[in-house]
Design brief:
Strand 3, helix 2 and strand 4 form a beta-alpha-beta unit. Helices cover 25% and strands 28% of the residues. The strands form 3 sheets. An 8-stranded mixed sheet has the order 1-2-3-4-5-6-7-8. A 7-stranded mixed sheet has the order 9-10-11-14-15-16-17. The N and C termini lie far apart (48 Å). It is built from 12 helices and 17 strands. The chain has 363 residues and is an alpha/beta fold. It is globular and about 95 Å long. It folds into 2 domains: 269 residues, Ribonuclease Z/Hydroxyacylglutathione hydrolase-like (Metallo-beta-lactamase, Chain A, 4-Layer Sandwich), CATH 3.60.15.10; 57 residues, no CATH class.
């Protein structure tokens, strides 16, 4: 996705599939050297070191084309003594446990990885631990109430999620860069303040969410000199002297039906995102198929784009029945004036090998 270097301060987004392939969105957090994966279809073409750098995986739902790659992921990170986090809809932990129970783990080692699954419900998040050294049993850790839409955050980003309907619960995600600490020197001057070491303390509190609410010592201007002062509301002070925040964002929507309820949930999550990555499973003439299978078609996307107004739009996950007709998708999309279209190749995954392409054993 070429615009990521221009739009994003901390993130680098790569779509790791073609238009007809199983979807996988990789978001690299440059300052951490870590990755986030959104959905986990076919990932055997990703390098092992890329998978080992994964910090969290966000699963929209457990249909095979969105979840089958988790076996490949675990195979590549199994001997990494870390706990990898997965976020998904209700019931994901049990599905993962049953999937892994199909393998024998009698040779488990203490340095194997573990998996923490966080199931996102409407008003809460339920955590389960699957410890690799014990053969991945499914252990309930607890339930916590959700605070708004945020399900994951670190110093550089936050991921928000809403539950939509695909005849099963399915998640849509928005990955937003967290605003950077930035003081406007002119606003600082107008407030009668002088830059100094106190700004480092204000910066620390900013990245800690202003959890520290004690008085902040600072420097004030007094004629030609400087006098010490205090601010009782450090967060309010920062809002008065900061530069207007501008944080880029990536929206990810896969396998949702075009219904009033889904649109009402998607709009506050994705309105005005920098990059929208969204499924477009069917062309306009197959609207009935889209409705029966609870997918989006090109006419649905046209209305959704007009409503959300992203800066860039990447359509993906086109039905394989359109193999050889992919250009028709782009012809049917009606882009709003300020929305730029991004295009994928039809296929990104390598072609399957035939026996004649492989070395033969002696007869």
């Amino acid at each position: 996705m070429s615009p990521s270097a221009r739009l994003f301060r901390y993130l680098e987004a790569t779509f790791c599939a073609g238009l007809l392939d199983d979807p996988v969105l990789l978001v690299r957090i440059r300052p951490l050297g870590r990755n986030l994966l959104f959905d986990c279809g076919q990932i055997h073409h990703l390098a092992k070191r890329v998978l080992k750098q994964t910090q969290a995986i966000f699963i929209s739902h457990a249909h095979m084309d969105h979840f089958m790659g988790i076996d490949t992921f675990i195979r590549n990170v199994l001997v990494s003594p870390r706990t990898f986090e997965l976020f998904g809809p209700p019931g994901l932990a049990a599905k993962l446990h049953h999937k892994l129970a199909g393998y024998d783990w009698n040779l488990a080692e203490r340095f194997w990885c573990s998996l923490r699954v966080r199931e996102i419900h409407a008003e809460s998040m339920v955590s389960w631990l699957l410890p690799g050294p014990q053969g991945f049993p499914c252990q309930l850790e607890g339930e916590q109430r959700r605070q708004g839409r945020i399900v994951y955050r670190n110093d550089y980003l936050q991921v928000e999620a809403v539950l939509c309907d695909h005849k099963i619960p399915v998640l849509a995600f928005c990955c937003r860069e967290r605003p950077a600490f930035a003081v406007d020197r002119q606003r600082l001057h107008r407030a009668g303040l002088v830059a100094g070491p106190w700004l480092r303390e204000l910066k620390r509190r900013f990245y800690n969410g202003f959890a520290d609410n004690t008085a902040l010592n600072l420097w004030r201007r007094a004629g030609d000199g400087i006098v010490p002062g205090t601010a009782l509301d450090a967060e309010g002070l920062y809002r008065a002297i900061c530069r207007p925040p501008s944080a880029a964002s990536i929206g990810y929507v896969s396998d949702v039906g075009y219904s009033p309820e889904n649109i009402d949930r998607l709009t506050p999550l994705l309105n005005g995102v920098s990059v929208l990555v969204a499924e477009c499973a069917f062309l306009r003439d197959d609207l009935d198929k889209a409705r029966r299978s609870s997918h989006l078609c090109t006419s649905d996307l046209n209305r959704l784009l007009d409503r959300l107004q992203p800066a860039y739009f990447l359509p993906m996950h086109l039905s394989k029945t359109y193999n050889g007709r992919c250009q028709q998708l782009y012809q049917e999309l009606e882009m709003p004036p300020r929305v730029s279209l991004l295009k994928l190749p039809d296929h990104l995954l390598p072609r399957p090998l035939l026996p004649c392409n492989l070395p033969r054993l002696p007869h």
